[in-house]
Amino acid sequence: MYKILIVDDESKIREVIREYAEFEGYCVSEANDGMTAVNLCKENDYDIIIMDIMMPKIDGYHAAREIRKLKEVPIVMLSARGEEYDKLFGFEIGIDDYVVKPFSPKELMARINAVLKRNHKKDSEPIMKSFKFKGLEINMSGRCVYVEGEKVDLTPKEYELLFYLIKNKNVALSREKILSDVWGYDFFGFDRTVDTHIKMLRNNLGKYRYIISTIRGIGYKLEA
Questions:
Q1: 66-96 pLDDT, tens digit each
Q2: How far apart are CA 44 and CA 91, in angstroms?
Q3: Is the pTM for the entire model greater than 0.70?
Q4: What is the residue-wise DSSP string for 82-120?
Q5: Which domains are present in the chain?
Q6: Are 21 and 65 in contact (CB under 8 A)?
Q7: What does the pLDDT look like over 144-197, one tens digit per residue?
Q8: Strand partners, 3
Q9: H or E element: which one contains 7?
C-alpha cells in the first residue's frame, strides 16, 4: 500500500484528495503547512507527497527543499499560479510534477499514479555505477558529477535526466520519449520542459556540454 502525504492549508482540498486517494487504496496522512510536512518527513517515510505552494509558516518550495535534504521522495506541487516561470522554478528544485488549481481529482490521481509507476520502474532497474568521458566523471550510485575534478551540483531532475541519457547513450531520443520516461507522461501544453532542462544540464557540464547533441526535428542524443 502506497503512503501519501497531502500538504495544503485548505481543508476542503485535502479532503477531496484524501477521498480519491483512499478509494484507490492509498494510506493517507495530512499536513496543513510546510513546516508540519517537513517534521512529518523526519519521522515517517512516504511514497509520494502532494504539496501546495502558498501556505503559512513556510511555503511549498521551501518545504520541498528541506524534504529533499532528508530523503528522495516524489513531490507533486499544487498551485493556483500557472505561469511558466513558476513551473520551471519548481522543476529546478527537483519536483516531479506541477498541477494548477482548480484541478480534476481524477487527473491528479492519474498523474500521481504515473509518477509512482515511473519511480517504481526506476528502483527495479539494474544500477549503472559510473560513467567516464575524458575529464567528465559521473558516480551514478553516489549521484556525483565531476568536471575536471571539480564537483558539480545538479538538481534531482537534472541528475535523473543525465543518467537517463547515459543509459541510452548514442540513441536518438525524441522529446516525447524523454518526457514519458523521465517525467512519466506527456506535459500537455508545456513541451519546453525537456529543452529547458537540457539547457541547464549543458551549462552544468561546462566544456563537456557538447556530448549532448541536438537532433534536429527529433530531440537529443548523448554521444560519448
A1: 998 888 899 999 988 766 677 777 777 778 8
A2: 24
A3: no
A4: --HHHHHHHHHTT-SEEEESS--HHHHHHHHHHHHHHHH
A5: 3-124 (3.40.50.2300), 130-222 (1.10.10.10)
A6: no
A7: 899 999 999 888 788 889 999 998 999 999 988 888 788 765 544 455 778 888
A8: 27
A9: strand 3-7
